[in-house]
Amino acid sequence: MTRVEGRRRQAGRPSGGVPQRPFGQVERRTEWVRVISDDQVAAIHAAALDVLARQGMRVLHGPARDLFAGAGARVEGETVRLDPAMVAERLATVPASFTLAARNPAKSLRIGGGHCVYASVGGPAYVMCNDKGRRDGTFAEMCDFLRLVQGLNVIHQEGGGPFEPLDLPANTRHLDIYHAQIRHLDKNWQTQTLGHARTMDGIEMAAIMLGTTVDGLRGRPVLLGIINTNSPLQLDVPMAEGLIAMAAHGQVNVITPFTLAGAMAPVTLAGALVLQHAEAMAGIILTQIVRPGVPVMYGGFTSNVDMRSGSPAFGTPEYAKAAQASGQLARHIGVPFRSSNVTAANAVDAQAAYESQMALWGALTGGAHLLEHAAGWLHGGLTASFEKLILDAEMLQMMDAWFEPLTTTESDLALDAILEAGAGGHFFGTAHTMERYERAFHAPMVSNWDNYPNWLQRGGIDARARANTVWKELLAQAEDPPLDAAVDEALSAYVTRRKAEGGAPMN
């Protein structure tokens, strides 16, 4: 991972010599950025309530409309209108924090407060690497990507299938994805929520993984799934089915409107946030109608589009501000917040780096509790990149280091070191420096201000080429975490049966 990490802390080193810190979440203790005032937050919230009361949501799923109606919403045809009192009542049952169980209990995750989950990229159509370029993904390549996610300690959660394995049938490939997630990971993993059948398959297989029943999961969140509204103001049948199944079984929905200012939302950032807030609250309310107190998250994905081409823009100043404002809106209604690490770049280049870094700062200083697509996202979400996975993981470690509190103990103030170096001296050899250096390294310190000759001697490779080398080193040394043979046999039997039944319908 980062050379900074190697210099500044004792690092665990997996085979291949890639420095990493141990697996774990860094609790952030900083104040969140407030990019808008409390009055502006209240104004956006009030406008969103007005939208839900006057315009309402178009809900295409009849059973979902029935649930809304039974809870007191006004339903006319496919339109569901929610009054502010009902919204407030249902928001009051949302838990502010919760834990997601993992196959390895030591890797279970805390969501809420100062904790954030870094989830790898999920859902692209294509895969990309330096050697083969962009292409349709295969199941074998997807399994390799999962092995890398398992081996990168800074990634806490797998993001729902790194990319589509297009060599598998569409109606059953989700079964193979779930089985691969369980085999190659002992971390928490995300499920798919496109329709009832896919969602229930994930829940059933998660129960087998943990040696319990579907009913046994109802009070034990283990799965997290993304629910996208169809902006503006529409919830379709597959998403409603997935949402209801997840909530009914005590699992976590992340309600995420896809509000791009100028396209599916008003062109002003404030207007786009009003629409996002309204749609997110409508989905959150439905989860609490299905099962009061079930964990749910507020997803923010507001960005802008290039008005010359209509294509989405990511990692922009507008995206960063929207992420920070979304965090304020989520805290205003007391719901944990999801954001993303994104870029519109088509290659692992400078654009990919600076847009992702902008997105990271916006999301993490905005208080995100789930960083979706934290590593590996490229091309506006159409592509998962092996090299981008590595470079993003390095940036995530930098962010974690930034969130560690600055300490000012007597030793940290380093008065003895300053006196030892004296005027015009240097600190390479002071006792203060060497003591800390030796905690991390057992090799002699080499002082060389000009690193350029060393870089040339090592081949002069750029970051993208280095990332290619790193992921191959990690993959060559990857070992799947142990999985009980009886559990794997039960999972295989489930997959075989469901394939024989036809899998999930194509929605």
UniProtKB/TrEMBL annotation:
Please indicate if the UniProt record lists Glycoprotein as a keyword: no
> Which Gene3D superfamilies does the UniProt entry name for this protein?
Trimethylamine methyltransferase-like
Start and end residues of each stretch annotated as Disordered: 1-24
UniProt keyword Methyltransferase present: yes
EC number in record: 2.1.1.-
Q: From what superkingdom does this record's organism come? A: Bacteria
Q: Which GO terms describe its biological process?
A: methanogenesis; methylation
Single GO MF annotation: methyltransferase activity
UniProt entry keywords in alphabetical sequence: Methyltransferase, Transferase
Q: What is this protein called?
A: Methyltransferase
Q: Which organism is it from?
A: Paragemmobacter kunshanensis
Q: List the top taxonomic levels of the source.
A: Bacteria, Pseudomonadati, Pseudomonadota, Alphaproteobacteria, Rhodobacterales
